[in-house]
Amino acid sequence: MNNSSGKTTRRNFIRILWIALISISLLEIASVILAFLTSGGRKSGDRKLQELKVLGSLDDFAKGSVTPFRSDRLYLVRMDDGGLIALSLKCTHLGCAVTWNKDSGEFDCPCHASSFLRNGEVSNPPAPRPLDFFPLVIEGGLVKADLKNPNKRNSFQKSQLTYA
């Protein structure tokens, strides 16, 4: 390996360098494979209540009310029959923030004039589908929303409402 003066030859140096580079590459590949095999993530049924955002007490939301939660990017709508739905404030056309128009009783998109009924259904296109909604849980009189899992939908269905 070494010549008579005790120095490493150029050939041996390059061989050692190649071995080191290949070893590092194999370690990186192994770590990617290991990360892939162990990631798995959480399944939707594995959500815990600690991950839900408390929006307030059920008594805080009068029947027929629309309450904005701008920092959470949603509106909490309480229907006249007491059902609740948490609607995304993001328009399904191009993602502009919709606003609640108390006079018309609809959500209006300022970008392209789409509008949505209180339940999130499109009343005036170009929005292609209703507003997304967030799953709600009512526990101990508190209204909690799962902000990590918005639901896309093609129409409003009564089963999308949450009742106490």
Helix content: 10-25%
Q: Which secondary-structure class do the elements indicate?
A: alpha+beta
Annotation field: number of helices: 1
Question: How big a fraction of the residues is strand?
Answer: 15-25%
SSE topology string: HEEEEEEEEEEE
Q: Which stretches are poorly predicted, pLDDT < 50 over at least 5 residues?
A: 42-50
CATH-assigned homologous superfamily of the largest domain: Rieske [2Fe-2S] iron-sulphur domain
Number of strands: 11
Briefly say what this structure is.
By secondary structure, the protein is α+β, with helices and mostly antiparallel strands. The chain has one helix and eleven strands.
Walkthrough of the structure:
It is a single chain. By secondary structure, this protein is an alpha+beta fold. The chain has two domains: 7-40; 48-160, Rieske [2Fe-2S] iron-sulphur domain (Rieske Iron-sulfur Protein, 3-layer Sandwich). It is 18% helix and 24% strand. The protein is built from one helix and eleven strands, in the order αβββββββββββ. The protein has one helix at residues 10-39; strands spanning 53-57, 66-69, 74-78, 84-88, 99-101, 106-108, 115-116, 122-124, 133-134, 136-139, 142-145. It has a four-stranded antiparallel beta sheet with strand order 2-3-4-9, with no helix packed on it. It has a four-stranded antiparallel beta sheet with strand order 5-6-7-8, with no helix packed on it. The chain has a three-stranded antiparallel beta sheet with strand order 1-11-10, with no helix packed on it. The longest helix is centred in the N-terminal third of the chain and has 30 residues, at 10-39. It is elongated. The relative contact order is 0.14.
